Amino acid sequence: MHRSIALVATIVAGALASCTRPNAAPGDGAEAFALACAHCHASGLSGIPAAGVPEDWNARETRDFDVLLERVIAGHGNMPPLGSCAWCSASELRAAIAILVAGSEIEVPEP
Fold it and tell me: Residues near 100 by Cβ (< 8 Å), separated by ≥ 6?
């Protein structure tokens, strides 16, 4: 019985840790990308636009950076709100999107 309680406590602690910033200091787009975006966008499987693959991003229905940011914040399709980066600030999300669309026709505005 005690082992079961310990196992549940470990699982819950892990789940809670995934909902908070992994580091105390604010990160940058690279950290947000690595911790939240890369899981789905590194490979481009299942039609997900791959990071740094201009053709994937140029083929999207929108090439407007602000619309992409709104979709990341609200969630879009199978992507959850904030792209699973609950600890990310708006500037971190913007920087992560810039990594994703690098080389594409999407114009990345100055921060």
Answer: 33, 37, 41, 49, 51, 52, 57
